Amino acid sequence: MNTNTEFNQSLLQFIAQSPTPFHAVETMKSRLSAQGFEPLYERDEWVLTEGGKYFVTRNDSSLIAFTLPSFDVAHRGYRMIGAHTDSPCLKLKPNAQVTRFGHHQLAVEVYGGVLLHTWLDRDLSLAGRVTAKLENGDLASFLIDFKRPLAYIPNLAIHLNRTANEGFSVNPQEEILPIIAGSQTELELRQLLAAQIQHEHGIEVSAVLDFELSLYDTQAPALVGLHEEYIAAARLDNLLSCFVGLEALLAGGDQQPAMLICTDHEEVGSLSSCGANGPFLEDILRRISPIPEQYVQALQSSMLISADNAHAQHPNYASKHDARHAPVINQGAVIKVNNNQRYASNSETAAVYRDIAAQLGQTVQTFVVRSDMACGSTIGPITAGQIGVPTLDIGLPTFGMHSIRELAGSQDAQRLTELLTHFCRREKVRP
């Protein structure tokens, strides 16, 4: 097995173990702990040491990991890599049980910009966080993952919708309620969740009080194509970047101060206590550099690379791209540019990235949205606006973004990891 295949297998395993942001953070925590990173807790007093490696989480769904080879962050700055842990999906509503026409169903809310029709006719499972009352009266939260097909949203047969192939819409209130059981089966959702806590954690709870649960596709991630040119998986946007950033930090973060920032809620605007548009990152940076002047110095000696998937030029819809800025899968990462500040890239941050790529013999692509189409955004401009750090937006070319199953190149992820590893080691990240 060659190194790229081994790398991709590790990536696929990471995605399979991370059906929700909670699970993604738990998976990253395990990897960091195995590599000698120490956990920090925001309610504790911190005592950091030169040469230390640390990670801290918030809401169990966002994580910041950093290395301090030197305390002189005011002059060295940080090599920062940003990504997000969440993906568009279907989340259970609080009163989720619905019984209609002989079937138990689950009421769901659409999270983010979901391609709804891709969720039809898929084997779905359930995972997330459950908060319960223990036998001793304490409250505790548990991650659960049923790991097997539990639910299904069947399509309407074409005999009953003759114009389906001419295009149809999906009503998110009425038409995406997954079937979970026949109505002859007794079903009490909170009892089911309590039994799952017992099964996964060996703990009996007296009552399930609340939950944050998402549906996900049980089809395993895979390498596809005649020569395995592609990666097909759920949640490539943006677990692919989380994995690449984590690997780069572990491989390259022992020479210069480096930081990985993986935050939740990007798909819905990032405005939360643990999102990029909240105080999480600034809180951590100010605890590392509590002197105001040194805090500003550190940020202005730093650079953030925000990694979030880019739209590859689809061969069946080529006209959706500006032909001169149309990324190709397996041709390297993409610098995202938008002069209206939907992306935070500028000539200086792009030049640093291009310089590293040239040293490694890697190609660099550029994406600019068509001038007659709206442009998406990322955590890049949000973070740059929050803390003032020079920022570059990049991403790996992807097909089917926000589908239940997305497609990326099997050569791109390891190349980007190599580039970001060198970024973490780079002595100067400002021109």
From TrEMBL:
The UniProt entry's GO biological process terms, in alphabetical order, are: proteolysis
NCBIfam families named in the record: PRK02813.1 (NF002759)
In its UniProt entry, the species of origin is given as Maribrevibacterium harenarium
Checking InterPro entries in the record gives: Peptidase_M18, Peptidase_M18_dom2
Which terms are listed as keywords in the entry? Aminopeptidase, Hydrolase, Metal-binding, Metalloprotease, Protease, Zinc
What name does UniProt use for this protein? M18 family aminopeptidase
Q: What is its EC number?
A: 3.4.11.-
Q: Which PANTHER family match?
A: ASPARTYL AMINOPEPTIDASE (PTHR28570)
Origin: domain of life: Bacteria
| SUPFAM superfamilies, alphabetized | Aminopeptidase/glucanase lid domain, Zn-dependent exopeptidases
In this record, what's one Pfam family? Peptidase_M18
Give GO terms: molecular function aspect only: aminopeptidase activity; metallopeptidase activity; zinc ion binding
Family statement drawn from the similarity comment of this UniProt entry: Belongs to the peptidase M18 family.
Cofactor (UniProt):
Zn(2+)
Its Gene Ontology cellular component terms are: cytoplasm
- Identify the taxonomic lineage of the organism of origin: Bacteria, Pseudomonadati, Pseudomonadota, Gammaproteobacteria, Oceanospirillales
